[in-house]
Amino acid sequence: TLRRVPCLDSAEHPLFMHGRAYEGPAMQPARTWHSKRKLPLRMADSAGGSTIPRAGGGGSASASTATSSPPRISSWLTASEWCDHPGARACKLDTLLQLLRASRRTLVCSGPGLGHSTAGRDEGGLAREAHFKKRGQRPALAHHALARLHELGLLHGWATTAHGALPQKAGFPQAQVAELCGSWFDPSNPATKPSSGGRAQERDWLEQEADATDLVLAVGFGPHLGAEPHDGALLRAAERSMSGGGGACLGVVAIGPCQTELDGRLTLRLFGSADELLASLLFLVEGEGAAVQWGPATALQPISWAHVPPLLLVPYGRDGARLSCDGTQQRRMYLDLRDNATVRLPGGHERERPPCGYVRHRSPNGSWFTLSLEGATVSLGAWWLEAAARGELIRLPLVNRPARLEGERPPAGPPVESTELGERARAAAPSDTDEE
To answer: In angstroms, how far is CA 426 from the centroid of its own chain?
Structure first.
């Protein structure tokens, strides 16, 4: 089907607001909020000359011409919001489930709008991004739903441009999350603007995923989905789904209320709230038993990390790199994040002398540690320790100073083994006390 339906180069095409794989009733989405302002098309400027769907089949433009001329104003792209007709939505959810089950590897790409309200639009209709600076920000229903889909084996990686570690707070494994614009909970990857391009480690990870992924699920983006340099995985997946051959894939599925620059290339396009659509998808996957747990009005709590102890024996060396599995006897390292423990960023980071500091305290709900590095206050999520104890990380975000290995004088107190950590319960509810 995807090879039979190429790029839809006209906004008037009957499938333009449904997706190239859609085979359901011809019911167009309803507009729930109207914006009159036409938005500039940016995707060609950062996509290396890739084509952009135009109203009326206006063809494409290349990046070489776009960079020397003013941004082109779209005749169809606005910040208006839409919602699928119930009949079309049911058909799209069935198709999405089929795609997820057919995919061998599915990557989630999410923007900072996932789970945020779109209230407070400016004159041009662009929803203002809610910059939550509280470390206690909680994941939305969509985050929990995506984490549950991972547990069911339907999702395999998550690339996000948000800073709040909401995928991890919802239970998505840290080792399978790439925070492209940094994180408030990773001192080795501080938060940056999307225009910075992010850290090389995350860019390399996304490049590998772009070649290995069968399906990309894009959620939490505005109209300029695909316009940022780090959205290359979306463009490549869309192109591969149209090219056929040995590198073919299932393409890109986008969920959200706004039209995007990738519309016309998408395999499937679902309009509406990501919370409601993903909850409905889980109802299809899990049946009647999930109706109460995943209802849109359900108030879900983030996973508690209070069971993770601050002192662990982890399979990493003094430099923070994971020990090799070559059969040689190697000593594990103590990772101590108790109050006043001295720490530093491991070698291999941007500065010649890695920043040093100490642990100030742990949050009241046990979910993160507050550190002082070179006088700056930073945080480390407790989920990093659990991933480290299991050896899931390639490199630790920080180590102790001095680092101590097995056989050397250990820190005071018994360290916890990874097997014991796995037996500890996660059922403790988080505290309502949030830190600024």
So the answer is: 23
Tokens 């607001």 sit on residue:
17
What CA–CA distance (Å, rounded) separates 51 from 6? 12
Determine the straight-line distance between the first and last CA of the chain, rounded to whole angstroms. 51
Q: Rounded distance, CA 240 to CA 68, Å?
A: 29
pLDDT tens digits along 181-231: 899 999 999 988 876 767 778 878 888 888 889 999 999 888 877 666 567
Tens of pLDDT, residue by residue over 143-167, are 999 999 999 999 999 999 888 999 9
| CA proximity to 41, closest of 50, 33, 52, 49 | 52
Distance between CA atoms of 391 and 210, rounded to whole angstroms?
A: 25
The distance from CA 62 to its chain's CA centroid, rounded to whole angstroms, is: 29
Which amino acid type is present at position 103? S
Q: Which two tokens stand for residue 358?
A: 């100490």
Q: Which amino acid is residue 403, in one-letter code? A: A
d(C-alpha 380, C-alpha 365), whole Å: 14
Q: Which amino acid is at 174?
A: Q
Chain-centre distance for alpha carbon 179: 7
Q: State the pairing for strand pair 215-219/251-256.
A: parallel
Q: Are strands 30-33 and 81-83 parallel, antiparallel or unpaired?
A: antiparallel
Tell me how far apart the alpha carbons of residues 26 and 213 are, in angstroms, rounded to a whole number. Answer: 30
* HEC assignment per residue over the chain: CCCCCCCCCCCCCCCCCCCCCCCCCCCCCEEEECCCCCCEECHHHHCCCCCCCCCCCCCCCCHHHHCCCCCEECCCCCCCEEECCHHHHHHHHHHHHHHHHHCCCEEEEECCCCCCCCCCECCCCCECCCCCCCCCCCCCHHHHHHHHHHHCCCCCEEEECCCCCHHHHCCCCHHHEEECCCCCCCCCCCCCCHHHCCCHHHHHHHHHHHHHCCEEEEECCCCCCCCCHHHHHHHHHHHHHHHCCCCCCCEEEEEECECCCCCCCCCEEEECCHHHHHHHHHHHHHHHHHCCCCCCCCCCCCCCCCCCCCEEEECECCCCEECCCCCCCCCCEEEECCCCCEEECCCCCCCCCCCEEEEEEECCCCCEEEEEECCEEEEEECHHHHHHHCCCCCECCCEECCCCECCCCCCCCCCECHHHHHHCCCCCCCCCCCCC
On the CB side of 283, how many CA atoms lie within 13 Å of its CA? 15
Q: Taking the model in full, what pTM does it have?
A: 0.83
